[in-house]
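User: Structure tokens for both sequences below?

Assistant:
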Amino acid sequence: MAENDIVDENPAARADLVHIRPFHPDDLDAAVRVDRALSGRGRRGFFARRLDHAVHDPAAFVGLAAEHDGRFAGFILARIQEGEFGATMREAALDAIGVDPALAGLFGIGRVLLDALANILRARGISELATQVDWTNHGLIGFFSRTGFVMAPRIVLEREAGERVPEAGADEGQTGDETAESIPGDRPRVRSMKRDDLAAIIAIDRRITGRDRPAYYTSKLDEVFNESAVRVSLVAEIDRHPAGFVMVRVDFGEFGHTEPEAVMDTIGVDPRHGHEGVATALLSQLAANLGALRAESLRTEVNWDRFDLLNFLNRMGFHPHRRLALRLSLN
């Protein structure tokens, strides 16, 4: 999310003076200019990867541009998600919005963009739009409050990306699509994720959740190899067979963040290999890899009532982030 107050606009949106159309590759330079004016830093790589993802997988992306008098006036970008952070329903993540500072406050452009996005998402059968915002960004928080967003039942957590993962403690228990702690001893072998891991990942997820989600993991694997600026997703093996996985993106630009960070949105351990240190081995290797890449932080989200998972992540060095998780009901 663009971390500035430029969408804190006149609530009397003048949709008749604003033309909304799809965001396309020719908008890249204009969007980068607007974003640089707002944040003080151009995020060309972020916008270029989003556009590339939209071309390869249009069903997983919505991008809109606003024009006033034929002039590029703003943008809004959202991704369609199904399963990230343990979610059980399809939702959209609003991760960038910006309005030309010269037009901010004049025509309600931010509100018009958001309304247009909401209409498209409803037509796709999506009932919730999620985002994050820094709690110190009062202008953007005010905009979201006025447009119907409320606090989501999720906690945003982070840890220093390359900080060493503590050694495992007493026991490990499989919970949802993440895992609790692990027994000390020989660790599983951890390696980089490959495209031909797809079938094994789907099978592990099925054992965890009781659901078949081939479309979700096909999309996630495509994202791992095509959208992320750096490939760091991992698979843990026991006896040369996949026993767990973690899907991570390294990028900058999401939700307005301007420094390199990693986002962990899916981690799973085969229930048949509980109590074998799989989750700890995955996070330990991930931390080592991220340290070498000089990523700033590792971020994730957890439902507030996932006490087992929160306890595990706390032991792994995660702590509350200063970002707030918000959601907008589209029903």
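Moving on to the next sequence.
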Amino acid sequence: MLGNFQQSHLRIEVEASATAIRDSLLRPALFQQWLWPQRFPPGLPEELHPGLTFTSTIGLVTIHHQVEVADSNCLRLLLSQGIDGFHEWYWGDGWVQSRLEGVSLLPLKLAQTINLLRLREFLAGKQGGKVA
């Protein structure tokens, strides 16, 4: 894999319940709304679950995802191709944190920061984090 080893660990406060955050991270119909311009394949299940694999794209870069953990307060994805590493998410009422490590040519910390801010805006736009 070409690129540099990068790691980033960010935590932000959000005005949302743990359930709303969970749904925004584990339900493809929701995370596709705030993870733009990343594109996901059609036919994903209603909710991510351990063992699920799928591929997303950002421009010309393809990223393969394998869901390792998906539960009430944690999501862990193993990444390959455009990013060789992992992405972990943890959350609770009013907060979310993201840990990303991998080798990539992409600016991972910048992308992670933008995604967290988009998630916060998305949750704020869903009536104080009450995502249906």
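User: Anything stand out in the second?

Assistant: The chain has one domain: 4-125.
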